[in-house]
Design goal:
Layout: E1 9-15, E2 20-22, H1 33-44, E3 51-57, H2 58-63, E4 75-79, E5 91-93, H3 96-105, E6 109-114, H4 118-126, E7 130-138, E8 146-147, E9 155-166, E10 169-178
Length: 184
């Protein structure tokens, strides 16, 4: 029996200069509307009749305000070793690989995005199917208790989608792509 092929996926993350992404299961910086709009546009855009999947850990799911859960117009996939109570239509996966397989075999899923948290990002950055990282890099330091690993060395920054300063926080939204070694 062959295992299903996991389609390439992207990570979408905001981090400070020390790779901090959160504190007390929340964002430690003020609301950054350009970043939030970019996240929504990027993760929502799909062909008619299709949708994108958002893969997130349980704590990330719980950090989304209840009135926004599940994130609309996208297939929400929650990774948890336990069995949390989830609304109808939200998929439960017991590992990142399980979530990626679920999203890969569903023909209605167009793109897959990993959106947190720290442990999930660490696994995703190292996963061979991680093809892209959209990184909002805040040019500031915040008190964080959750961090991501550095962008792996086999990724190259290929585009800066925006350079903005909001709420006194300068930041850039960068697109990083995994460089594939040429076949021998």
């Amino acid at each position: 029996m062959t295992s299903p092929v996991v389609r390439p996926f992207a990570c979408v993350v905001a981090a400070d200069l020390d790779d901090g992404i959160g504190r007390d299961n929340d964002l430690p910086w003020p609301r950054l509307s350009t970043d939030l709009r970019t996240f929504k546009r990027l993760t929502s855009t799909a062909a008619p009749g299709r949708r994108n999947a958002l893969v997130m850990g349980r704590l990330t799911w719980e950090s989304v305000p209840p009135h926004l859960r599940p994130l609309p117009g996208r297939q929400n996939v929650v990774v948890s070793r336990s069995t949390p109570t989830l609304p109808d239509g939200v998929w439960l996966a017991h590992s990142l690989d399980d979530a990626l397989v679920q999203a890969s075999v569903d023909p209605t899923i167009e793109r897959v995005f990993v959106i947190g948290g720290g442990q999930i990002y660490a696994q995703a950055f190292a996963h061979p199917a991680c093809a892209e990282i959209v990184l909002t890099r805040l040019a500031a330091r915040f008190a964080c208790d959750t961090v991501i690993p550095p962008v792996p060395p086999d990724f190259a920054r290929v585009e800066v989608l925006a350079e903005v300063e909001e709420a006194g926080v300068p930041y850039a939204i960068e697109r990083w792509v995994r460089e594939v070694a040429p076949a021998a």
